[in-house]
């Protein structure tokens, strides 16, 4: 896997152009091209809060989490797997594979862009290829951001509140957000 510079700790001091450049520079292994035999279960899970566990213990090294996240794939049947050129192992995911922990916004209305930093350090800009969706699970809306290949990030509650504040301030009808030319209604599915 090619070396990449470490992800920024936060997006505060970066322009959206710099964020887009960082997102484009991030090189990931071509997991969508790898089709090894299924080898069993990895004894790993990703908890609802984004914590990665192996054999019941949290994985404390961020570099290890980033490495595993880079080989994570979602299968057509919805299962999550860790895949290399020679093996494929199931991994349990309680909700979403990632958590969107920070928001950077530039522009207003239709000209707005929303960039999210994930708990793995990845940066995703919402738009046509990375839509936002809101799902009602009976305890209020759960916002999700498409990351790649069927993998999603649950938008952390504080970040969701930031999104809601922006939408309320802009007072559009229906209530929602624009990012990279696409509108995302805040209504639950």
β content, as a range? 35-45%
Averaged pLDDT, please? 85
Shape category: elongated
Low-confidence stretches at least 5 residues in length (pLDDT < 50)? 1-7
The strand order across the widest sheet is 3-2-1-6-5-4
- Strand/helix succession: HEEEHEEEEEEEEEHEE
- Main sheet? 6 strands, mixed
Span between N and C termini? 37 Å
Total beta strand runs: 14
How much helical structure, as a percent, in the residues? Answer: 10-25%
Count of discrete alpha- or pi-helical segments spanning 4 or more residues: 3
Radius of gyration: 17 Å
Secondary-structure-based class equals alpha+beta
Question: What does this protein look like?
Answer:
- This protein has 189 residues and is an alpha+beta fold.
- The protein is built from three helices and 14 strands.
- The strands form three sheets. The protein has a six-stranded mixed sheet. A six-stranded mixed sheet has the order 9-8-7-12-11-10. It has a two-stranded antiparallel ribbon with strand order 13-14.
- Strand 10 (132-136) and strand 11 form a beta hairpin.
- The protein is elongated and about 50 Å long.
- It starts with 15 loop residues before the first helix and ends with a strand.
- Mean pLDDT is 85; it is low at 1-7.
């Amino acid at each position: 896997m090619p070396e990449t510079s470490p992800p920024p700790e936060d997006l505060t001091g970066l322009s959206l152009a710099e964020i887009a450049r960082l997102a484009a520079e991030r090189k990931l292994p071509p997991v969508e091209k790898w089709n090894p035999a299924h080898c069993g279960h990895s004894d790993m899970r990703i908890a609802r809060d984004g914590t990665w566990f192996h054999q019941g213990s949290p994985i404390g090294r961020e570099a290890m989490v980033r490495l595993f996240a880079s080989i994570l794939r979602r299968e057509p049947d919805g299962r999550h797997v860790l895949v290399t050129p020679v093996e494929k192992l199931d991994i349990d995911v309680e909700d979403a594979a990632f958590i969107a922990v920070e928001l950077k916004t530039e522009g207003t209305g239709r000209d707005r862009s929303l960039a999210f930093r994930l708990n793995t350090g990845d940066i995703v800009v919402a738009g046509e290829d990375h839509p936002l969706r809101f799902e009602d699970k009976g305890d209020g809306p759960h916002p999700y951001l498409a990351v790649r290949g069927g993998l999603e990030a649950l938008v952390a509650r504080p970040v969701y509140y930031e999104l809601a504040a922006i939408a309320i301030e802009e007072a559009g009808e229906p209530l929602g957000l624009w990012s990279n030319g696409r509108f995302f209604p805040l209504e639950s599915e």
